[in-house]
Amino acid sequence: MFCLSELEDTVRVPPSDLNLPLEVAIKKALQKLFLDKVLSIGLCVSIYGIKSIEGGFVLPGDGAATYKVVFRIVVFRPFVGEVIAAKFKESDSNGLRLTLGFFEDVYVPAPLIPTPNRCEPDPYNRNQMRWVWKYGDDEFIIDDSCQQIKFRVENISYPPVPTERAEDAKPFAPMVVTGTIDDDGLGPVSWWEACAPISDAED
Amino acid sequence: MTSVKANAGALTNFEVLDLLNSRGASKDTTRVIASETVSRSEYKVYDYLMETAASTQTRDSVTKFSDKCKGFKLAKAEILNIINLRPSSDVELTPILEKPDEREIDIEGILALVQELLPPLPTVEAHKENEQEETEDGEQPNMETSV
């Protein structure tokens, strides 16, 4: 789910931070620049450490010091095929939306929900649709009550920033993870709790 | 901004949790003291990780597990997945593996190794203990003390 990435960048330390120890000031500037932002490599979660700092020149007309820094960050970038546990956020006629707390744009489109299924208007929540999986004679509902939903990553995409948007469109998501719950062991964890763990199985 | 190395190494959930812990993140609700070193968005990651298997793991158990996994012919990504999810049954392990039948993977062996080396999951553990008191042979309580 997470990996380390080494980056090199030119960092500008504002004059107000110049009284701090150098590493602290640069770390502060890096955090402001990268934390919680989506780069081409993924969502930056945390600054791991600084490897080298060079420069410290003050450019003409600017009060700040500019440094060339090589540092490592922890990036959230799931790989295709990874199984991740998430929570239910909302669902509509296109599919489900799951959240990881720090990352909320995980979508499970309708074709990747196990079939046969049907979508019905949610009786508890007027705006939402509810997905129900029909397996044999049982029906399994996917909604808020599911504690954890496991999904497998199918694809990650980084949609380009839109230039124009409708007024009521969803907030722009710079990184979208598409997942599937159509396989053994995937979907709400409660669906599979009936299967006994290995130590209980009879031989 | 240029990237020197886009992928300098994959991290297990445990390693990220360890990093946040060493910065001062903790479970208490005030979080004022640590807010100097741990930002709000980092706390969201911390909260998420505390609910996964990573919160009960130790560096020792994770290293031992990945060493022993070498004998099972698993891909690095699969070992990472197993450490992050801690599957306890066949049906939890299969979506992680790719074409297990063609590669002749020893599923029972892997699950036995998981049971043996990786500590059980956090919140689910309390619930499971009540259910399995009669059938489980006391293995899980032992796991707790070793952590």
Q: In words, what does this structure look like?
A:
Chain B: Residues 3-124 form the RNA polymerase Rpb4/RPC9 core domain. Chain B: It is found in: Nucleus. Chain B: Belongs to the eukaryotic RPC9 RNA polymerase subunit family. Chain B: Pfam families: RNA_pol_Rpb4. Chain B: This is DNA-directed RNA polymerase III subunit RPC9. The complex is a heterodimer of chains A (203) and B (147). Chain A has 203 residues and is mainly beta. Chain A has two domains: 1-74, RNA polymerase Rpb7-like, N-terminal domain (Dna Ligase, domain 1), CATH 3.30.1490.120; 80-189, Nucleic acid-binding proteins (OB fold (Dihydrolipoamide Acetyltransferase, E2P)). Chain A has one helix at residues 22-34, and strands spanning 2-13, 38-39, 42-58, 65-76, 83-92, 95-99, 106-109, 117-121, 129-135, 138-142, 149-157, 176-180, 187-188. Chain A is elongated, with a radius of gyration of 23 Å. With 147 residues, chain B is mainly alpha-helical. In chain B, 54% of the residues lie in helices and 7% in strands. Chain B has nine helices and one strand. Chain B has helices at residues 13-23, 40-50, 59-68, 76-85, 90-93, 100-103, 107-117, 122-131, 139-146, and one strand at 2-11. In chain B, helix 1 packs across helix 2. Chains A and B meet through strand 1, strand 3, strand 4 and strand 5 of A and strand 1, helix 1, helix 2, helix 4 and helix 5 of B. Strand 1 (2-13) of chain A pairs antiparallel with strand 1 (2-11) of chain B, so a sheet runs across the interface.
